[in-house]
Structures are given as structure tokens and as C-alpha cells.
Automatic annotation (TrEMBL):
Swiss-Prot/TrEMBL keywords: Ribonucleoprotein, Ribosomal protein
Keyword Ribonucleoprotein annotated: yes
Coiled-coil features, chain-numbered ranges: none
Biased composition (Basic residues): 113-127
GO terms for MF: RNA binding; structural constituent of ribosome
Family under the similarity heading: Belongs to the universal ribosomal protein uS9 family.
Pfam family, one: Ribosomal_S9
Originating organism: candidate division WOR-3 bacterium RBG_13_43_14
Name of the protein described by the UniProt record: 30S ribosomal protein S9
Region (Disordered): 104-127
Gene3D superfamilies: 3.30.230.10
KW Ribosomal protein (keyword) present: yes
A GO CC term attached to the entry: cytosolic small ribosomal subunit
GO biological process, one term: translation
Length: 127
């Protein structure tokens, strides 16, 4: 098996093993719909394959750790896009124009002392 390509989103990290085959996809050893539980997340990880026009011609085995299921789906999507480029550099233009090669930089904001939540303050009392 080839070396893995990594993708990340929020706190989730994904290692993608991509090889030519018949379109079998496994996420942590399970089918994508069983793992994610929502069709919209499965559609998210299929976007790079459809954009590149290789859906059904590559086998994908992904190992995902950390974060929640939405972050993990984003990590798998980025990893698949990067793996497709490594396999065929000509796909870079189409994947880049679709915005699939950019890691989403949004992270959870840290908790601050003296605040009830990340930005919410405690109620002010004058007396």
C-alpha cells in the first residue's frame, strides 16, 4: 500500500490510502454512511471524486481520529483531494478552482478567564 496522505479539519486528522480499483470506500474499516450516519457528510467526502471525474475508479481507505463527525468528514475530503493530486497532478486546476485544496482554518476559540463562555461576559452588577 502506498504512503498515506493526511487531511485535517478542526481537531480531526485523516490518513488517506488511495489506490486504483473499483470504488470501494472504507472509513475506519466501515462504510461511509455507517460511520458518519448522515448522507450529507458522505456527499461531502465524495465531492473531490466527482469533481476530478474518478468516482468509482479508485479505492479509498481512511483512518480518522479526533474531532467530531463533521470535522472528520472535512478532513477526509481534503485528504482525498490531496491524494488525487499526488496520483495525477493534472487534476490540480479543477480541484483548486472548486476550493477543495484549502484547509478550513476555523477552530474553536479558546475559553477566556473572567468570561462565562468564549466571548460572553458575566452579568455586570453595579451594586
Amino acid at each position: 500500500m502506498a504512503e498515506p496522505i493526511t487531511g485535517s479539519r478542526k481537531r480531526a486528522k485523516a490518513k488517506i490510502f488511495l489506490q486504483s480499483g473499483t470504488g470501494i470506500m472504507k472509513i475506519n474499516g466501515r462504510k461511509p454512511l455507517l460511520y458518519f450516519g448522515r448522507q450529507e457528510l458522505v456527499d461531502m467526502i465524495n465531492i473531490p471524486l466527482v469533481t476530478a471525474g474518478v468516482a468509482g475508479t479508485v479505492d479509498i481507505n481512511a483512518r480518522v481520529i479526533g474531532g467530531g463527525i463533521a470535522g472528520q468528514a472535512g478532513a477526509v475530503s481534503l485528504g482525498i483531494a490531496k491524494a488525487l493530486i499526488k496520483q495525477n497532478p493534472d487534476l490540480r486546476a479543477s480541484l483548486k478552482s472548486a476550493g477543495l485544496l484549502r484547509r478550513d482554518p476555523r477552530e474553536k476559540e479558546r475559553m477566556k478567564y473572567g468570561h462565562a463562555k468564549r466571548r460572553k461576559r458575566f452579568q455586570f452588577s453595579k451594586r
